[in-house]
Amino acid sequence: MRIGESYRAGKPVFSFEFFPPKTDEAAVKLLETAADLKAALAPDFISVTYGAGGSTRTRTLECVTRIQNELGITSMAHLACMGHTEEEIHEVTRGLVAGGIENSLALRGDPPKDGSPPAVNGRLAHATDLISFLKANFDVSVGGACYPEVHPEASSAEDDLRWSREKAARGARFLITQLFFNNKDYFAFVDRARAAGIGVPIVPGIMPITNVAQIERFTKMCGARIPEELKQRLDRNREDAASVMAIGIEHAITQCRELLERGAPGLHFYTLNKSHATRGILAALRRV
């Protein structure tokens, strides 16, 4: 299934994101989690992330091909161009296509954690370059990322939107947002995107809160904000894991219901390789 086409079928598309395991034991667990989600929720597709500098390249390829070919779930591989030559990206993508994977999410990739300048090899410096490269060399469906609260490295909201528009212009068939917790940010971004001529589906990225320290780290890295009322509730229950989980799931259910009611094309869940929170949220949505 071409993921870009699935968003045009007239019904919400539900998808889950995993990160590639570091060990064989973790790989087995990941396949079990994916199978569990398939049995309970029948996701439209599953995506697997790509480590900085291609550090998980082999694991990403293995995961997406096994999820698709063994479990029968359409899979999408994340591809990051930072630190890669065109030849390396060509080799990776050729392996994915040979394994039956025809969907990719084109990303620049994270800069080095030590603060050193990102490595740029050849012409693949940005996600837009990678989108152009993939569309020119492979028959695949390509998606991109976008940021309702502005990319942390962008000089302005207008500059950030310009890059989102360029991704669509170069062939991205859909955009998946960074995580966010206030739907106003998503709807405001969609309005700005449409006014700027971006017509592709803009899919909300949802991360259920299950651990306060963890979500604080994530939001600091990506520039997302936790609404003050939600932040205060989490702070009061920081040491109570069950309460944090319940608060996170409750907020996500409310958030997702409004997104769907107001026309979002689907929901993309950042699962952190766990199924409990995502299962609870999507089950509640489907009961309505």
Protein topology:
Elements: H1 3-6, E1 13-18, H2 24-41, E2 45-48, H3 57-71, E3 75-80, H4 86-98, E4 103-107, H5 127-137, E5 141-146, H6 157-170, E6 175-179, H7 183-195, E7 202-206, H8 212-222, H9 228-236, H10 241-261, E8 266-270, H11 276-287
Parallel strand pairs: 1-2, 1-8, 2-3, 3-4, 4-5, 5-6, 6-7, 7-8
Helix pairs in contact: 2-3, 5-6, 10-11
Write up this protein:
By secondary structure, the protein is of the alpha/beta class. It has a single domain (3-287), classed as TIM Barrel (Alpha-Beta Barrel). 49% of the residues lie in helices and 15% in strands. The protein has eleven helices and eight strands. The protein has helices spanning 3-6, 24-41, 57-71, 86-98, 127-137, 157-170, 183-195, 212-222, 228-236, 241-261, 276-287; strands at 13-18, 45-48, 75-80, 103-107, 141-146, 175-179, 202-206, 266-270. Strands 1-2-3-4-5-6-7-8 form an eight-stranded parallel beta barrel, surrounded by five helices. Strand 2 (45-48), helix 3 and strand 3 form a beta-alpha-beta unit. Helix 5 runs parallel beside helix 6. The longest helix has 21 residues, at 241-261. The radius of gyration is 18 Å and the shape is globular. The chain starts with a helix and ends with a helix. The model has no long low-confidence stretch (mean pLDDT 91).
